[in-house]
Write a structure and sequence with these properties.
This protein is an alpha+beta fold. It is about 20% helix and about 30% strand. The chain has helices at about 45-55, 120-125, 135-145; strands at about 1-10, 15-20, 30, 35, 60-70, 80-90, 100-105. The strands form 2 sheets. It has a 4-stranded mixed β-sheet. The chain is globular, with a radius of gyration of 16 Å. It starts with a strand and ends in a 7-residue tail after the last helix.
Length: about 150
């Protein structure tokens, strides 16, 4: 099984960054969240940082895993385990280095894009607001920034 990482990057205006695969890539012109394969011996978070540098020219500043899915594409030998991360990047412009194009879209607009099949459940959860990447990142920050206020 191959492990793949994907970043769900949410801006302050709630728009999410998506990329369209190039015409010459497998699954040409399908949309996806930026990311890629984890190399042997590489931590998933390190792979995500590397992929974001390579694909978009951006620096990962924080990430929190928010879900996993297993998927096998027709005609491929390996099953994929895709790990989705709520991610934040340093200020700066993302460039479509390895994409046909990129777009910042509202969660409710995701259904209008032709995504890879493995993204379907995540797309539905993002579009309906069941998953909010920005809130996941903020909640994680609070865990580390505050004392135990749960009454323990």
């Amino acid at each position: 099984m191959r492990t793949v990482v994907a970043a769900v990057i949410e801006r302050g205006d709630r728009r999410l960054l998506i990329g369209q695969r190039r015409r010459e890539d497998s699954s040409p012109l399908k949309w996806e969240f930026p990311g890629g394969k984890v190399r042997d011996g590489e931590a998933p978070e390190a792979a995500l940082a590397r992929e974001l540098r390579e694909e978009l020219g951006v620096t990962l500043t924080k990430c929190v895993e928010m879900g996993r899915v297993r998927h096998q594409y027709e005609g491929t030998a390996d099953e994929l385990e895709i790990r989705f991360f709520a991610a934040a990047i340093a200020d700066g412009d993302a460039k479509p280095v390895c994409f046909e194009q990129i777009a910042w879209v509202l969660p409710k607009e995701l259904g209008a894009y032709d995504f890879l099949a493995a993204n379907r459940e995540l797309i539905a959860n993002l579009a309906t607001g069941r998953i909010k990447p920005g809130e996941i990142l903020r909640a994680t920050e609070k865990e580390f920034d505050t004392d135990d206020t749960e009454g323990h």
